Amino acid sequence: MAPVYQLFGKRLFDLLIAVPILILISPLMLLLGLCSLLVHSRPILFKQLRIGWRENPFILCKFRSMAETRDQSGALLSDADRLTSFGRFLRSTSLDELPTLWHVLRGDMSLVGPRPLLPEYLPRYTAFQRRRHEVTPGVTGLAQVKGRNSISWEKKFEFDVYYVDHCSLRLDLRILMMTLVSVIRRDGITQAGHATGPPFLGSKRETSK
Questions:
Q1: Phi-psi bin for 66: left (phi > 0), alpha (psi -120 to 50), beta?
Q2: Which of 65, 182, 189, 199 registers the highest number of CB atoms within 10 A of its CB?
Q3: CB atoms < 10 A from the CB of 202, how many?
Q4: Of 67-76, 109-118, 140-149, which range is least confident?
Q5: How far apart are CA 12 and CA 184, in angstroms?
Q6: What is the largest CA-CA distance in the chain?
Q7: Does residue 37 contact residue 44 with C-beta atoms inside 8 Å?
Q8: How far is CA 64 from CA 48, 73, 82, in A?
């Protein structure tokens, strides 16, 4: 059933959920956009190149959670120094992710799948880890509900590839329900010593799967 679902059902499933949610939360998104404008000034959206399905790049948009504070030389301060109180609230409640639902409408992302990561990570993946790009990236995913930023990169990629091999409607529904629980509990938002989590610098050895 999984291949049929991936080819035909998953896109329909995404639209049936994402479209009503976007209509319902549009007033909230407008309010958050105005608050972000007051706290962070323009632009209200954070835009960054990410890697999607079959390693195709796209521009990911989220609500900004950091100020553009720079040092005397003009370089941006660390994430921890630029993260505002409003930004912490957005991240802890996952409200900064609401604009990613537009990517679901566009087809850049799915509701469920491996999170889209930075292009500089591509040469650092093992062959096993690169398999995460065999499905469309998701707003949420198995790695997010299994620990998010509190688990290692290697463990995240194991969950990503597990999802690639076991993608189904049942698993998607399960992950969405677990996501609601994680958001309410605010689990795994950060990793010790980091504003969010450390960058992926590569694995020490090939993961054998």
A1: beta
A2: 65
A3: 11
A4: 67-76
A5: 27
A6: 58
A7: yes
A8: 11, 23, 11
- Whether residue 133 contacts residue 55, with contact meaning beta carbons closer than 8 Å, is answered with yes
pLDDT of residue 205: 55
Predicted TM-score of the model (pTM): 0.86
Crossing angle for the helix pair 10-40 and 85-92, to the nearest 10 degrees: 160
Helix (H, G, I), strand (E, B) or coil at 105: helix
pLDDT bucket at 69, cuts 50 / 70 / 90: confident
Identify whether 43 is preceded by a cis peptide bond (ω within 30 of 0).
Answer: yes
pLDDT digits (tens, 9 = 90+) for 84-120: 899 999 998 999 999 999 999 999 999 999 999 999 9
Rounded distance between C-alpha atoms, residue 168 and residue 204, angstroms: 32
Task: Retrieve residue 186's tokens.
Answer: 């605010």
Q: What are phi and psi of 55, to 5 degrees?
A: 65, 25
Q: How does DSSP classify residue 8?
A: I
The residues near 33 (Cβ < 8 Å, ≥ 6 apart) are: 44, 63
- Per residue in 182-196, is it b (16+ CB within 10 Å) or e — as a string? bbeeebbbbbeeebe
CA 102, 106, 107, 113: dihedral to nearest 10 degrees?
-10
Separation of alpha carbons 58 and 66, rounded Å: 21
Are the C-beta atoms of 97 and 79 separated by less than 8 Å? no
